[in-house]
Amino acid sequence: SYVLTQPPSVSVSPGQTASITCSGENLGDKYGCWYQQKPGQSPVLVIYQDTKRPSGIPERFSGSNSGNTATLTISGTQAMDEADYYCQAWDSKSPFVFGTGTRVTVL
Amino acid sequence: QVQLVESGGGLVKPGGSLRLSCAASGFTFSDYYMTWIRQAPGKGLEWVSHISHSGSYSKHADSVKGRFTISRDNSKNSLYLQMNSLRAEDTAVYYCARDLDGSGSYLFIWGQGTLVTVSS
User: Fold this and answer.
1) Tens digits of per-residue pLDDT, A62-102?
2) How far apart are CA B116 and CA B83, in angstroms?
3) pLDDT for the residue numbered A93
4) Distance in angstroms (rounded) separating the CA atoms of residues B34 and B102
């Protein structure tokens, strides 16, 4: 089955840039997206189709996808961005394959 | 406003059954794929099953195939998940979700989740 691997944790200082990677075989050939999940809350779609932001998502969230790696970048990170982040892509066997998840801590 | 509300979770013994429901409002339910996602305590997200607009197509994860069945009633704006032969490893918060644009991609609207606990 298709596997998406993320670092377990990323730490960032307020105002700095956080980059979260998602690795999968030929991931760049697929469209991917990213979800943010704060403690006790449901996930929120923050990036879809690799680079697009749904309405209401701040411009500081951006995405890219090439080769075997997709990246979610949070520019000017704020305390409210502290959350778990999951990448997601599609596979012939599973329409929704989720990454292992990354806890972003704003120090 | 656009909303999904799950219900039907609870405590069930191994081997038991449970039926989850998801009530949709604020949008044309029949225009969208619907999906069940679960999250075990302290763990990541796992796709369970999804169903097309009309209900003519559905797919289930291997981990639940043959035990869970997804269905929908567009006249009632409702999504269901019939769960049989439950196991301890099915313990999780179950979310229903709607896709972004009717294409079956990108889970844009999520419910608040309902907790299913399988334990003797």
Assistant:
1) 999 999 999 999 999 999 999 999 999 988 778 899 999 99
2) 10
3) 78
4) 9
User: Is residue A45 within 8 angstroms of chain B, CB to CB?
Assistant: yes
> Which of the residues A20, A42, A45, A84 would you substitute to probe the B interface, choosing the one with the greatest number of B C-beta atoms within 10 Å?
A42
Query: Which residues in chain A have their CB less than 8 angstroms from residue B50's CB?
Result: 95-96
Burial class (CB in 10 A: 0-12, 13-18, 19+), B120: exposed
B residues 55..74 contacting A (CB < 8 A): 59, 61-62
**Interval A16-23 mean pLDDT:** 97
**Per the CB < 8 Å rule, is B108 touching A54?**
yes
Q: Which residue do the tokens 């269901």 mark?
A: B80
